[in-house]
Protein: Glutaminase
Amino acid sequence: MTDQRVHDDLVAILEETREIGWGEPADYLRDVQRRDLDALAAAVCTTEGEVVGVGHHDRALALQSVSKAFTYAVALQECGLDRVLAFIGVEPSGEAFNELSQLSDGRPFNPLINAGAIMAQALVPGDTLEDREALLLDRYSALAGGQLEVSEEVLRAEQVRADRNFALAHMLASSGMLDVDPHEVVQGYLRQCSVEVTTTQLAVMGATFASGGRNPVSGERVFDERVVQQTLSVMLTCGMYDASGGWVTQVGIPAKSGVSGAMLGVVPGAMGLATWSPRLDSHGNSIRGVELFRRLSDRWDLHVLRHR
Ligand code: GLN
Structure:
């Protein structure tokens, strides 16, 4: 596919989905997102490093839960698969992203719901919160090919509404899963959720996964192939929370959504895709984002299980 064809298709699909006006942004982020309520963006980065963005693709947005996939990959890379599996399962939970749920052995169901993401944050090596954040920001930035930072404005909004996340960390602590202070772990988790990217940068992060862990723009190897395979497997089965089954059947690519309205998709060996539109459905997934992905998957035949 030529860059021009990618560009034209993205523009056409963006216009088709612009009409979908319903859905509300996350309540607690309403102030932060007031300027961006009707923002709409899509971007693609191929495994050859070609980047195409349309709409508001250069505006900053918070990673929110999309960060869960990246932190899981960092934990896998640093601690190894066996250690991470000992603390975090790989089963779809079928429940909301912030449910207080655990497998019968006390592990969170998977790393892409809040309980598992808080656990993954606790597995990132480092003596202090600052050490762990420095490592995460370094790896996130390498994925994106540009220096990423925490948005203090988003972070403040997160901190006001963190009761549920503290409850989840205490649930893990009471099961003997945490050997670090639950409050500190939640702070780290909220900070990773508040890291800002553009939609275009998010597509490059996805393309790094699509390229087996090597950033196709900078050429830097960020993760081992096995780490990427594990992360993408969980994204395919659990990335859209309790809408994951419908997602696999209709769109069929590993993905992760965030409450900011961000969505990341990865087509292994081909491309990273990112969309942004803050109005959410009842699962906390972007309404226009889901629709954009559905249409792109159809138009470009992206379903990873299609007959070839
Ligand atoms: N910061 C949000 C939370 O922890 C992230 C959730 C999300 O993006 N779905 O509740």
Q: What stands out?
A: The longest strand covers residues 41-46. The chain is about 45% helix and 10% strand.
